[in-house]
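Below is our example:
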Amino acid sequence: MLRKILFPLILGLAGCGVLISLGWWQVERLAWKKEILAGIDMRLAAPPVPFSRFATEAADEYTRVLIDGTPTGDELHVLVSGTEAGTGYRVISKFETDVGAILVDQGLLALNNKDAAPMTLSMDIVGTLLWPDDQNSNTPAPDLGANIWFARNIDTMSTTLETLPFMVVVTQTSPADPRITPLPVNTATIKNDHFEYAVTWFLLAFVWAIMSFYLILRTIRQKDATD
């Protein structure tokens, strides 16, 4: 009998082992992601510092900064949905500062307000340094004629607007542009699906164990029927 059930037993144990290990891996990833998010929250809670053109993504992403300068009126509109302010266009502006022009994500422009004239007054901005990674292989190319983009990409956008490759996402401005609702950076918008993935792998391991049990039980019954 042992020889009859050996294969389904090995299959069941091996399958459960693999699925459980994948579940534990996701638990470890969950702890890793929580640590990263806690670090980001600490940076977002820190007092803002003056913007430096020597900032780097590795050392300074999610740092709160102060900038003052003037938007030139040159903008790129990124179509977005599901934001805290609804659906519309993220306004990525060319912003002249004393260290050079940079990109500023001013916030959400309503769909029906796309053609409203930009404000070009001098502004003081509190914001967050960000190197967004919205773009992937499925992202459509921007419609340059209609000025509609589908993802933020610092390299492409800074080349288009002829700025330094930095983006500051607005938390607040003085004075405020009446067209735009700021979309400050926060960790609530950063995906953390590792708990769901872990539960999925553990449930699959449970199902695999049940299926293996019934396979072994069926093999034993077939053995008994032939005796």
Notes: The chain has a mean pLDDT of 91. The first strand starts at residue 49 and ends at 50.
